Amino acid sequence: MIQIIMKPELHKFSTCKEFAEEFQIGENDLILTNEYIYQPFFGQLDLKCHTVFQEKYGMGEPSDVMAEAILNDIAKLNCKRIIAIGGGTIIDLAKVFAVADTTDIDALYAKMPNLTRTMKLVMVPTTCGTGSEVTSIAVLNRTRMGTKMGLVAPTMYADSAVLIPELLQSLPLKVFATSSIDALVHAVESCLSPNGTSYTKAFGYKAIEMIINGYRKLVKNGLDTRKELMEDFLIASNFAGLAFGTAGCGTVHAMAYPLGGQYHVAHGESNYAVFTGVMKEYMRHREDGEIAVMNDFLAKLLGCDVAKVYDALEDLLNMVLPKKALREYGVKEEELAEFAKSVIDNQQRLLKNSFIPMTQEMVCKIYRDLY
Ligand SMILES: [Fe+2]
Question: Where do the domains of the chain lie?
Answer without folding.
Answer: 9-168, 173-370
